[in-house]
Fold this sequence. Notes:
The protein is mainly α. Helices cover 77% and strands 0% of the residues. It has one domain (3-258). The relative contact order is 0.23. Residues 125-132 have low confidence and may be disordered. It holds the Pfam family TauE.
Amino acid sequence: MTTIQVLLSIFSGTIVGFVLGLLGGGGSILAVPLLLYVVGMKDPHVVIGTTASAVAINAYANLIPHARAGHVQWKSAITFALSGALGAYTGSIIGKLVPGKQLLFLFAILMIVIAVKMVMPKKTKSQADDFQNQVKLPLLITMAILVGLLSGFFGIGGGFLIVPGLIFVTRMPMIAAIGSSLVSVGTFGLMTAISYSLSGLVNWWIVFAFVGGGVVGGIVGAWLAVRLSKQQRTLHYVFSGVVMLVAIYMLIINAEALDW
């Protein structure tokens, strides 16, 4: 690693942290293209292993304030995390077997799905009154395993799937689902990171630089979010457009992956 790459890793982490702080989600999906095309990492598998490690650290760090605020439904959160952990580890093993070009092509498709989901109308009905203490355990475990597989395969936290999954199964309020999801995001990222690390596919210097930048970016993003609270919807549209453009670029340069 060169000094320039370290600085670019800090810069990239700052961007991701800023987006997470500003929009409350979605920023981590930019980690892979940033490490590939800004930092200049060459091996897609090392990029995914490194991203998973950074995601895990950030998720556990962000879990602390949510836990202190009482936003974590621990029973459902831990059940989802432990059930999905095996899926995440399995998904990471499968991901390492897929050639880099194909993996990035599939990742770009996932980015497009997320970009579209970010601008879809959100339900405004509060679900706090519908919260069920009797969680449908088999359904919760099944969903956790499926989300874990996807998370491990792509090296992402999977929060954009975990949050609606928790709400659908448990009917917990949105803020509780966000706080509870961080237990799974951290655990899934950790399992993926362990799998990739055992294969020597994690660059820890970049992980620490990325996370360091993310802390600073997150503080700035959260500060700006308060001042731009009325423009959040517009910001989501702008960010969704950026993710879509990056995804299309990744699809084009990895188009040869179609020749499977």
